[in-house]
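quick q for whoever's on today - can somebody do inverse folding on this one?? i tried earlier but teh output was garbage lol. tokens:
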């Protein structure tokens, strides 16, 4: 079974706005329509989203290009290690392509997280940016 996923989507917004918004409490919450996110936007900073369902630590930051985080949810088995989330931002004319490479997931949860990224991040983000 696989323990990773890769998903991409393009949004009608500049790379700087999308990158900074991912690391901003209010914007991350607005992008996703979720419960208030709590994000410390620095290497070693902790984050949580969706009322504490998602949480982890930011491991690497390359401004406007890449974010790497340790990432888990309350549904991970207690003995499972944190997963690894790499978020890539690629400028494409007036749009930004975002790619999520999510590895080290519990094997029996990969399809659920793939659907979760689509339903709880990419769809509300698309709706958010199309309204602007």
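ok took a stab at it. sequence:
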């Amino acid at each position: 079974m696989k323990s990773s996923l890769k998903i991409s989507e393009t949004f009608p917004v500049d790379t700087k706005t999308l990158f900074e918004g991912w690391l901003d409490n209010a914007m991350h919450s607005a992008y996703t329509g979720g419960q208030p996110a709590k994000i410390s936007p620095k290497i070693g900073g902790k984050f949580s989203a969706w009322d504490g369902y998602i949480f982890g630590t930011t491991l690497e930051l390359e401004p406007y290009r890449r974010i790497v985080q340790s990432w888990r949810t309350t549904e991970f088995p207690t003995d499972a290690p944190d997963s690894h989330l790499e978020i890539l931002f690629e400028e494409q004319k007036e749009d930004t392509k975002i790619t999520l490479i999510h590895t080290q997931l519990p094997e029996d949860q990969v399809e659920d997280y793939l659907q979760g990224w689509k339903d709880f991040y990419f769809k509300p983000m698309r709706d958010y940016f199309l309204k602007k």
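fwiw The chain has a mean pLDDT of 94. also Residues 5-131 form a domain with the Alpha-D-Glucose-1,6-Bisphosphate; Chain A, domain 4 fold (CATH 3.30.530.20). so keep that in mind when u check it
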